[in-house]
Design brief:
homodimer, alpha+beta, ten-stranded mixed sheet, 7 helices
């Protein structure tokens, strides 16, 4: 029974996030329906993690086993033929039986895109946070560096109340079950760069708590606005309290870029 | 009573075109509601022409008179505050009383965007036609040049049946009433260019019949695919029959770029 690793890109705008939910359009549900249409099999592809409503992906990874002996290239072509253009299967390859998109993940990279134009082009609006106030990129970069390392990231995790409202648990969200029970995560890279009118935040970590990237970005933007000094970040981390950090950046600027398995 | 010229950009994806329709989201209707919200006045801004469902604009022009003595910069700021991010007011300036966005227009420029990637990025998909077959850009450019000049463009106009289905008349669609009654239009520029994986068609004319740009693009893509010889374009124009030309390109690749008034 072939086991598959799919790399999936999507525009999250029209979806209620990755995770299948009855009666709502989701990426996982749309993918499952397409697989059923092609193979007749009822399967649920496992993602490397859920993405929230409005969050996008360039390299979400999904794993799924199928009985049908369909070749990889045919499976990819058939999926891209059936799926809406907002979801694209970028690659399909056979994977070892024990490969699990979530449990096997070693590192994830997210990118957050901020547009700084005073009037944001409508074609860009679904994919950025439009920040029209002046931002000090040097201060934001200095603050971002403090995030690197292994820390308890409770200050940047969605609160129990946020999660209860959406009927999910924080542990659900992350990669490896062994580390999911704690709020300790290791961040390998955390940097800002400029690309024309865009400010791009890239962060690579062992895993991320729910809302963690958006809460980091909200806090780093507070630094860029001069509301928080860059060297306060260690104290914000040490506080282990959501109220110590800044607001949650909006979902539409966030992209899951890559998931590494080695 | 101040008279205004607005330049408006929009992502047409979530709208049923420019023209106000009861019970449907439209650009004109959304703009009218925002103006009412700001001034309390019930006005209908006039566009330089309608754009169809899913068609975008970088520089649609609208004219409207308001009683309220609101300064231009306040009006722009208030509109962009109220309007959804899919619609942006790029500029607001006072105009002579006799300025009419449609009747005063001298030239319009449209751009049509084709993406040639075998897998089109989901963030690009709402704004392009994804053509995955090989296209001969030199042949398309050669064919495009035949369009320049003053011609009867009946071969590239939506048929009466197309229009009847949508309860509109061909004349409605165009700029100057004097020329709207005939299918003669003057095309000043008609060129293809490449920008990375994108093929861009730019066309500037005195006005355009309904579906004319999309029908030109569909025909020029037939040339690019080798289905139609480039030097057949004059005969297609001369046929004055919709069936002589190629298919209608999909709406989401089309942008109204600019409207000139002098």
């Amino acid at each position: 029974m072939p086991h598959w690793k799919l790399i999936v890109a999507y525009d999250g705008s029209p979806y209620n996030g990755w995770q299948i939910q009855p009666g709502l359009p989701t990426i996982q549900g749309t993918l499952a329906r397409a697989l059923h249409h092609i193979t007749g099999e009822t399967v649920l592809p496992q993602g490397s993690g859920r993405t929230d409503t409005g969050v996008h992906a360039l390299g979400q990874v999904a794993s799924v086993s199928l009985q049908s002996p369909i070749p990889a290239s045919n499976l990819q072509r058939a999926l891209n033929h059936i799926l809406p253009t907002a979801i694209r299967v970028v690659s399909v390859e056979e994977a070892p039986t024990d490969f699990h998109a979530r449990h096997s993940a070693q590192r994830k990279t997210y990118e957050y895109r901020i547009a700084t134009q005073s009037i944001c082009p409508p074609t860009l609006a679904p994919f950025v946070w439009n920040c029209t106030w002046p931002l000090d990129l040097v201060a934001m970069q200095q603050a971002a560096a403090y995030v690197i390392g292994t820390h308890d990231f409770t200050s940047f995790a969605a609160t129990d109340r946020d999660l209860a409202n959406r009927n999910i648990s924080a542990e659900d969200d992350d990669t490896t079950p062994a580390i999911a029970k704690t709020a300790f995560r290791t961040i390998f890279a955390s940097t800002w760069s400029r690309d024309g009118d865009l400010l791009l935040y890239r962060v690579t970590g062992s895993g991320f708590l729910h809302h963690m990237v958006r809460n980091l970005v909200g806090t780093l933007v507070d630094v860029g606005r001069g509301r928080t000094a860059p060297d306060l970040i260690p104290a914000i981390i040490a506080a282990r309290s959501r109220s110590a950090a800044g607001p949650t950046a909006p979902p539409q600027g966030l992209f899951l870029v890559e998931v590494d398995y080695t």
